[in-house]
Write a structure and sequence with these properties.
single chain, alpha/beta, Transposase Inhibitor Protein From Tn5, Chain A, domain 1, 8 helices, 8 strands
Length: 267
Amino acid sequence: MPEILALLQNIAPLVDKTTLRRMNHVVFGMLVASGRVTMLGLSRWTEKGGSYRTLQRFYQSVLPWAALHWVFFRKRFLKPEDEYLIAGDEVVVSKAGKKTYGLDRFFSGLQQQVIPSLSFFTFALVNIREAQSYPIQTTQMVKSAAEKAARQAEAHKVKKTGEKKKPGRPKGSKNKKKQAMVLNPELVRIQTALHTLLDTVGGVLSLKYVALDGHFGNYPSAFMVRQANLHLISKLRSDAALYPAFEGAHRGRDLSPSMGRKSRCAN
C-alpha cells in the first residue's frame, strides 16, 4: 500500500487527497483480487478504509483520465531521446443486462462473433527502442441512435428480400466524379479520440505514425490518419490489389498511364 501511494503522488496535483486515497485502495484491490473484477470483489480484498461504499464513491467521481495518464507517463516513463509511435486497438468485453451505458452488440475477436458487450478503443504510446507500450487514452465506443436505426434497416432489408449485394462493380455502371471522402461513424469516433490524444501530448513528442490492425487496412482509415498529419501502419487484406506507380516510357498518343502492373498482396 505505501508503495502504491508513493507512485500516485505523481498525479497528486490533478486530484484531491480523498480521491487519491480511494484510488490507492482500488489499485491495491485490482492487483491482489482473483477472478472477475467487481466493486464488491475489490472491497473484499482491500485493507481498512476500502469499503464497498468508498469504492462506489470513487467510481462516481469524474476524473480527467486523459490528463492523469499523460502526467503519470511523463513523470515515470517518458524518455525524450527515444522514438515513439501511436498504437490503437479495440477491446470488447462481454456484458449481460440492459441498463449498462453503451451496451450494444459488438464483434468479439476472441469468440469470432457479434455478442452483447461493451466496446473500448485504446491508444497507447509505443517506445520503439524498448518495444514497450504505455496506454494513454481509453474511449468507450457508443453507437448513436441514428447508427443503430440504419443498421437495423439494412438487416431488415436483407432479410426481407433474401438477397445480398453482389461483390464487384454493377454491370453497365459508368465512372463518376470522385466525391469527398465521408468517414463512417466508427472512424469518426476514433478520429475524435486520436485528435484528443494529440492535443494532450502537445509538442512534447514528435509523432509520425499510427499502428492499427488489419480491420483498418483500407483507404478510409488511411484518409482519417492523414487528416491528423500522421501515417498509417496496418495490414492489407489478403486479396488486396496493389498498383505501383508507372515508371515505363510513354508510347502512343493516349494519356500517360499513372499505375503500373497489378499485383496481389502476399499473406
